[in-house]
Every structure is written in C-alpha cells, then in structure tokens.
Amino acid sequence: MTRERIFGEDTPFGAWVRKQEDLPAVDKDCALSVTDTDMIFHRYKACKDTLGKREIQCLAWLEVKSRSAVPPPAQRDTLFKMHRQLTRGIKPGRDFANVRNGGHSEYHYGIAVLSMSGTTPEDSDTMRWFRFQDNGQLSAPISVTTMQLIQLLRFELKWSDCITPSEFRRHHKTYTESVKEVTPLGFEVFRVIHRRS
Prior knowledge:
Structural class: alpha+beta
Low-confidence stretches: none
Largest sheet: 6 strands, mixed
Distance between the termini: 58 Å
Number of domains: 2
Radius of gyration: 23 Å
C-alpha cells in the first residue's frame, strides 16, 4: 500500500491505488512513489508583429500545496525529473523551452510549486512560489500576491522571478530578400535569399 493522504480526499481511483497491497510504497527491491497532478495550464495565444501573425501555446504544470506545505522528498524527486524532461533544451536566462510544432511555437515552463498558508488564495495570508533548480532542489520562495498569481497563470509574468513581464517576441526574425545576379553566361536572374536578423 502507498502512503496515506495527509490532507483532503482522494479521487476514487487514487483511493483504490492506495489500498492495493500489490503496489507497496517500499518493497524488498524497489520503491513506488505515486503523486497526482494538481493543475496543468495550457494557454493559446495569437501574436502579431511586423512579420505577421503566429500562434503561441504556453504549457505548465503547477503543484499546489496548502497549509504552507512543500512537496516531501519522494514527490519532489518525481516532480523534478518531470520538470527536467519538460524543460529539456532550456537556454540560460530563459523561463521555458521553446519547441516548434508545425505552425506554432510551444513554450514549456515545466513545473512550479505554489504553497499557500490556507487552502485557496482568498483564505491565505501568504503564498509562496517555487521553481526547481538544476540540482533538483526548490528555489528560495518568492512571495506572490493574488494578482501576480493570476498573471503567472496567464503566462504574463516570467515564472522565474514573478515580476518581469513575459516576452514572446521573435528573437531571430526571418525575412526574404530578392537579389539580382548575373550568371556566368551573362544572364540576369533573381535569387531569393532567406535571412535571419
């Protein structure tokens, strides 16, 4: 049997999993850590710039803890491994991994942890925001207001500092240029060149 839930109620399936003797938390040669997914946010956004329109999709996983709790070590280990996979390829100084998928860009923010002193933002005196560091530990907590939380969940603020506005600008814009060239036989032709700024 896996560890009993500390607060709240399980889903019917979660309660069933916890009762299964064939799914022990610790066995003679293995351990099983089971964690539920609190919230996955997926925002669709249409952006327009000098090159035209483009579709952006932002995705993130939020682990929510009440009563000022933080994930216990086994859950933190599991969440960090998922975070590392979701943000594979993240560039230094960026909040997300950018993946091109057909005609749109996907920004994968990985996993953040929200710890509230109460059970909801309305009944909490404090809310703390955590991100995973490269070593698997949680970052120092950042205190957030309800308005900041809403902006974070709308992907309007960077998840790393909870203050800086998110930018979805193209870092290397592409443009097409026609160049007239003369061939070795003396013919004038136009060649299309794709350039990146």
